[in-house]
Amino acid sequence: MTIREKTEEQEFSIFSPYAAFSRNSRGRDREEEPCDIRTAYQRDRDRILHSKSFRRLKQKTQVFLIPEGDHYRTRMTHTLEVSQLARTIAKALRLNEDLADAIALGHDLGHTPFGHAGERALAEVCPYGFAHYEQSVRVVELLEKKGEGLNLTWEVRDGIRNHRTSGAPHTLEGQIVRYCDKIAYINHDIDDAERAGILQESDIPEESRRIMGDTTRKRLNTLIHDVVYHSEGRNEIVMSERMESAMKYLRAFMFQHVYRNSAAKREETKAVHMIQELYRFYNSNPQLLPEEYQDLMHNRNEPQEKVVCDYIAGMTDSYSIHVYKELFVPKSWQG
Fold this sequence. Notes:
Elements: H1 3-14, H2 40-49, H3 52-56, H4 75-92, H5 97-106, H6 115-125, H7 132-147, H8 154-161, H9 172-195, H10 206-212, H11 216-231, H12 241-259, H13 262-265, H14 268-284, H15 291-298, H16 304-313, H17 317-328
Helix pairs in contact: 2-5, 4-5, 4-9, 4-11, 5-8, 5-9, 6-14, 7-8, 8-9, 9-11, 9-12, 10-12, 14-16, 14-17, 15-16
């Protein structure tokens, strides 16, 4: 019996009956020889962690565009915080921690430069539309490894696709990530907003502070405990009605005071313009796309407009600015 098989066997004696057992995975689109050490979900986690798309998250906006300071969140630090919260809940509920971890690490791989501003920019100009959760699946199914994709299990891809608020993941581990994404970004965005001088703790609605706590640490602790205690022994991941209502209220407060705040978003109009100009340029000049994207169009029959989105969505904030300058900003004479 291999180490992997022993681990799979142990899951049946340790995990809740509602867990996604590694041995029972629906599998991959392309069959592969199983690893003798790692379970299928451990293997998926490692593939995501070693992917180019994951590494690029460190230079992609979370909320504040190109912030000056080392302590503001990026898309990568957000991803790692979601992963940590998801592992904590999964372990407490005796669910598959490796599956929750893999979904969390992959949930934002398709995000554009400049966060939701970049996502909105591409959605407005691309005839196919654009949504980061669908793009994240496209990244792992097609774009990584020069068109081969990462060949992840069905359960991981399902969790990535359905992590949005309106999503309905088929596994409890996917449901955990769906909650943890919101829990993480609401609380770390408060922390970043306070660091930026946009918010003070006293600005947060008194009812929210009374129910969830008056510090980021207390709020995270309260929300995580609520999910664990109300989901234990159940075949669904839930919050108490009181806590979910309080979190939704705090999220609405954040949209009003931070996500749409003029100080936090003053550069967004420029970012949207830049992303859309890059789209128009490459859609008019597809021959200038890198070779792997040419291959998608010519050998895999992918629509040109989607491939242009693939290229731009994969850029980091800094690289998109560099490309824009190269294409549209005159250089000084170097004669």
